[in-house]
């Protein structure tokens, strides 16, 4: 340590500034040197161990004592170009009882334009407080030095930033609130190890702490990190996890909250999956995020233009054995198609075959069946199901209802899908009424009605399907013989307050009552 101090003095006499901007000794080495301070004896420091904290002279030691000693080292380094060895020791001794003694040396530092003087003017008075309880902590020292100042621009700290930031330094900086952590992430944007530790720290935070600030500050920071470190999969996964949690937190607090739907967010998320095509976990997270974002009015069109339909269908084909990708892919398709203007239907024409294959791969999966029925219903409304596919899709709807008749959303979407197909295709209508191995669709309709006779939405969807079925003369005798007429009469009498339901019921009853055995092959009539 003696030699180290002599070196500092020698360079000071040569007119070199020994701040961390001019000193060639790196910060890490200074830290190591400082750790030997406590081994000094009176023989090495005739001025009563002038580097030691006031309380340490009375054998009262703490981490705050180390802060004082470190402050003395920093003071010596930044002032050695204009204070000699003896003056420096007198200064260290005097500030134990007269803290104002720092004022003069700090003013001289400013006059001599010592680099980073503003940082030292903020830092040293806080480190060299006589009362240990008023002295700042190690975390404060690091935060002031590396986060709250321009100190990082100095040559030595640039050298430090080109290396891996020590984990203990990062952890100290991250022991704070969301705003402070975001500040650290911004200041160390080029350091992936800092970004990872910061995001993991945020993920461990309780929901009430993570909610502030919401949402754009955190979203913008995470999107910037994903873009800057696109090739690092762990950063992409952590950022997506945090985005999902923060957006979910926002929606839980305010269901009407506006989601970020800027095209840059979408492009970064899609680019992330293209950069890591092998990561199935990342695909699932990105799809979940895009599903949330697609709730915004303008987002659906942007996602369509970004080629998301093709993207999803490709993943359904490539990762058909990954249930999570299939579920999230179908959910995202639904979110993009419902209540949206479809810019280009061409990609969706490939969807029916792929979705049928997915449903066939998970024959007993109720959640998959519900997601598939939802998308098939929208595809039928958009006219994206070809005529030769009508029967197969109708069979899928019936099979899904049989499998999951306890899931109301599935039942509603399946019956809407069947009604949509029956409206345009007699073959699809026949698929409903002709008995098969699983039983007749008409029997299934009656079962569903008995389960949901008090649910107006389900009953209305059943009636809409029956209205379209009765538009085909060849099917009417089958409907009459199945006992559908009493069921529809009951519906009409029970739901007198629903004009649409009553209208459907009356249409069905009139057609059934007018039924006579067909004398020749008939065609189809349009639903009034």
Describe this structure in words.
By secondary structure, this protein is an all-alpha fold. Among the domains are: 2-157, Transferase(Phosphotransferase), domain 1 (Orthogonal Bundle); 164-254, no CATH class. Helices cover 64% and strands 0% of the residues. It is built from 29 helices and no strands. The longest helix is centred in the middle third of the chain and has 21 residues, at 233-253. The N and C termini lie far apart (99 Å).
Determine and state the CATH class of the domain at 2-157: Mainly Alpha
Largest sheet: none
Estimate percent helicity: 55-70%
Estimated structural class: mainly alpha
Spatial shape: elongated
Q: How many strand elements? A: 0
Distance between the termini: 99 Å
Which fold does the CATH topology of the domain at 2-157 refer to? Transferase(Phosphotransferase), domain 1
Taking all residues together, what is the mean pLDDT?
Answer: 81
Number of helices: 29
Low-confidence stretches: 1-5, 7-44, 152-161, 518-528
Q: What share of residues are in beta strands?
A: under 5%
Cα radius of gyration in angstroms: 37 Å
Question: Care to give the gist of this entry?
Answer:
Helices cover 64% and strands 0% of the residues. It has helices at 2-13, 27-34, 63-79, 85-94, 101-111, 117-127, 138-146, 155-161, 167-173, 178-187, 192-204, 207-210, 216-228, 233-253, 263-275, 280-293, 299-305, 308-318, 323-337, 351-361, 366-382, 390-403, 408-424, 426-433, 441-451, 456-469, 476-481, 484-494, 499-513. Helix 18 runs antiparallel to helix 19 and helix 26 packs parallel to helix 29.
């Amino acid at each position: 340590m003696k030699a180290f101090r002599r070196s500092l003095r020698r360079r000071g006499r040569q007119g070199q500034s020994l701040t961390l901007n001019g000193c060639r000794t790196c910060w890490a080495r200074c830290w190591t040197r400082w750790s030997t301070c406590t081994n000094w004896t009176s023989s090495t420091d005739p001025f009563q161990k002038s580097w030691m904290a006031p309380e340490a002279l009375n054998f009262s030691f703490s981490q705050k004592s180390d802060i004082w000693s470190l402050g003395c080292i920093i003071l010596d380094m930044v002032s050695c170009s204009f204070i000699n060895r003896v003056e420096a020791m007198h200064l260290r001794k005097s500030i134990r009882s007269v803290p104002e003694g720092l004022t003069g040396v700090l003013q001289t530092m400013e006059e001599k334009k010592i680099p980073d003087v503003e940082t030292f003017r903020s830092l040293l008075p806080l480190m060299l407080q006589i009362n240990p309880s008023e002295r700042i902590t190690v975390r404060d020292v690091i935060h002031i030095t590396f986060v709250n100042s321009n100190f990082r621009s100095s040559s030595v700290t640039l050298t430090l930033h080109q290396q891996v930031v020590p984990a203990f330094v990062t952890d100290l900086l991250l022991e704070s609130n969301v705003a402070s952590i975001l500040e650290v992430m911004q200041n160390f944007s080029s350091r992936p190890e800092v970004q990872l530790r910061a995001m993991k720290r945020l993920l461990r935070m309780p929901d009430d702490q993570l909610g502030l600030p919401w949402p754009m500050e955190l979203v913008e920071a995470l999107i910037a990190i994903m873009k800057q470190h696109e090739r690092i999969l762990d950063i992409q996964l952590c950022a997506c996890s945090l985005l999902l949690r923060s957006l979910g937190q926002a929606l839980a607090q305010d269901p009407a909250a506006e989601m970020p739907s800027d095209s840059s967010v979408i492009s970064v998320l899609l680019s992330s999956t293209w950069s890591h095509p092998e990561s199935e976990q990342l695909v699932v997270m990105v799809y979940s995020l895009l599903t949330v974002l697609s709730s915004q009015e303008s987002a659906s069109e942007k996602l369509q233009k970004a080629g998301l339909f093709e993207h999803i269908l490709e993943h359904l084909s490539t990762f058909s054995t990954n249930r999570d990708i299939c579920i999230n892919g179908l959910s995202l398709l639904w979110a993009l198609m419902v209540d949206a203007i479809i810019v280009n239907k061409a990609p969706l024409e490939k969807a029916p075959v792929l979705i049928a294959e997915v449903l066939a791969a998970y024959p007993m999966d109720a959640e998959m069946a519900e997601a598939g029925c939802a998308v098939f219903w929208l595809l039928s409304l958009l006219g994206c199901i070809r005529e030769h596919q009508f029967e197969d899709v109708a069979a899928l709807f019936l099979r899904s209802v049989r499998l999951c008749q306890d899931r109301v959303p599935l039942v509603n979407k399946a019956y809407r899908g069947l009604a949509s197909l029956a409206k345009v295709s007699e073959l699809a209508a026949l698929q409903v009424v002709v008995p098969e191995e699983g039983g007749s669709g008409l029997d299934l309709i009656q079962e569903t009605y008995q389960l949901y006779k008090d649910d107006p939405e389900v009953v209305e969807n059943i009636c809409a399907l029956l209205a379209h079925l009765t538009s085909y003369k060849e099917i009417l005798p089958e409907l009459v013989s199945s006992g559908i007429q009493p069921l529809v009469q009951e519906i009409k009498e029970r739901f007198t307050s629903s004009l649409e339901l009553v209208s459907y019921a009356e249409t069905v009853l009139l057609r059934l009552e007018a039924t006579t055995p067909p004398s020749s092959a008939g065609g189809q009539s349009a639903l009034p």
